[in-house]
Design brief:
ProC C-terminal domain-like fold, Rossmann fold, 2 domains, 11 helices, binds NADP nicotinamide-adenine-dinucleotide phosphate, 8-stranded mixed sheet, 243 residues
């Protein structure tokens, strides 16, 4: 399957790097606004084809992935339409709809490491898109009404999780660790927690019970989080983008 990615920024670049790592480099063509961006990407993924000409880039493709900023979608579709014909057009641009787009997808930048959580909106060709995004992480096909929630939890979610990690780091530094050590400790602790949930299938509260001794120190910290309305803050954070 030949894939052309239009836009090689944070998201498009992450997809290209992820797909290249998954062995697709020679099937990938990528475009950007500047040669500088393409040169940087070519250095990391030497097997890909990179060019500034969107129309030419689309010509040999089976699938075209639009990864430009939302306000450029209309203009880029108008530019490539003569070459698009029956090619599958997937857009990852948040919040923009266009009659020519076949499939809407919402990956996240962990695609670069094969760890994206991607949502693909139900559509005739959703399964083809899901297979493609499945090569760079987990992919769920969902109805349109769940796309915005998916974007908040997984697209934006990367930022929320990292903000929590940074808060842990700051606490660690206040307690005497150097920032690099605190970062490593926070990352390993998060990774351990996720692996435990994955391996055991435990409900998060059951996992919390395992580290919470009655009258012990874990419950003291947990209750502080409750007093600070931590759960409520996270829920409000996720719903903020739906307004
Ligand atoms: N960032 C995320 O976490 C994320 C997650 C999910 C979805 N998205 C969606 O992904 C899209 C891109 O976001 P981003 O964060 O990756 O933006 P970005 O980093 O600014 O990347 C945009 C890319 O588009 C290129 N570009 C601009 N005009 C172009 C044109 N006419 N033809 C071809 N390429 C062109 C830019 O080239 P230059 O580099 O040469 O300027 C740049 O590489 C957005 O619609 C966003 O909603 C982003």
């Amino acid at each position: 399957m030949k894939v052309t990615v239009i836009g090689a920024g944070n998201m498009g670049g992450a997809l290209v790097k992820g797909w290249a790592k998954a062995g697709m480099a020679t099937c990938l063509t990528v475009t950007a606004r500047t040669q500088q961006t393409l040169d940087r990407l070519k250095e990391i993924c030497p097997g890909i084809t990179a060019m500034l000409d969107n129309k030419k880039a689309v010509q040999g493709a089976d699938v075209v992935v639009l990864a430009v900023k939302p306000w450029l979608v209309e203009q880029v579709i108008a530019e490539i339409t003569p070459e698009l014909r029956d090619k599958l057009l997937i857009s990852v641009a948040a919040g923009v709809r266009h009659e020519r787009i076949d499939v809407y997808a919402m990956p996240n930048i962990a695609a670069e490491f094969g760890e994206s959580m991607t949502f693909v909106e139900e559509a005739e060709q959703a399964e083809t898109a899901a297979e493609l995004f499945g090569r760079v992480g987990l992919c769920k096909v969902v109805p349109q009404r769940q796309m915005a929630a998916g974007m908040m939890m997984a697209g934006c979610g990367i930022a929320y999780v990292v903000r929590f990690l940074r808060a842990m780091m700051e606490g660690g530094v206040e307690m005497g660790f150097y920032p690099d050590e605190a970062k490593e400790i926070a990352m390993q602790t998060m990774q351990g927690a996720v692996t435990m949930l994955r391996e055991t299938g435990l409900h998060p509260e059951a996992a919390i019970d395992k580290v919470t001794t009655p009258g012990g120190i874990t419950i003291k910290g947990l209750n502080e989080l409750d007093h600070a309305a931590f759960n409520s803050a996270v829920i409000r954070c996720l719903k903020a983008g739906l307004k």
